[in-house]
Amino acid sequence: MKKAILISALLAAATASLAGFAAAQSTLATAPETATVNSIRGVDPETQVTVNPVYHQEEGRKNRNYRAQPPIIPHTIEKYQIDLHANECLACHDWKNAADRRAPTLSMTHYTSRDGVQTDTVAPRRWFCNQCHVPQVDAPALVDNLFKGSEE
Fold it and tell me: Which residues, at least 6 apart from 118, have a Cβ–Cβ distance to it below 8 Å?
């Protein structure tokens, strides 16, 4: 008896789903082909919009706002390749290259595996630098920011 009730309930649900799908298909079929899309910006979507850069990259090291904050990148990384096969940040910041390039060396935490083993290569979990580190730019604030660093 319970199986019969369950099967009939499932069939009713499937029938309702198919009916809703058919209604949606018929609505789409009758929609005019010249439907317009309204843009949030109030611009025709077909119009090419040019965007001027509103910021410039700041050079030099920045102070951190709290003790465990990852350092901010003081240079552009716009064309850097950081993927599974390459990481251009290591060309300067890897411990083997940092002295020659006069760049800060990565923290030893970047050379520690998830099991706590120290290695000579960057740990896979620390490979994608821009996962924690971001370039510093002089950009206008999009929203009010009331954040105060731990030293203030």
Answer: 108, 111, 112
Expressed as residue numbers, the domain containing 28 is 1-33
Half-sphere exposure of 116 (CA within 13 A, CB side): 0
**Residue 110 labelled as part of a binding site:** yes
Would you say residue 16 lies in a domain?
yes
Full-model pTM: 0.54
Same domain, 97 and 129: yes
| pLDDT tens profile 73-120 | 888 888 888 899 898 998 989 988 888 988 888 888 899 999 999 989
92 belongs to an annotated ligand binding site: yes
The answer to whether 132 is annotated as binding is yes
**Residue 89, annotated as binding a ligand:** yes
> Is 93 a member of any domain?
yes
Q: Which residues contact 79 (CB under 8 A, 6 or more apart)?
A: none
Are 74 and 26 contained in the same domain? no
Token pair belonging to 117 = 């083993």
Q: Is 129 annotated as a binding residue?
A: yes
- The CATH number given to whatever domain includes residue 129 is 1.10.1130.10
| 3-state class (DSSP) for residue 55 | coil
Q: pLDDT digit string (tens) for 42-78? A: 767 777 767 666 555 666 677 788 888 888 888 888 8
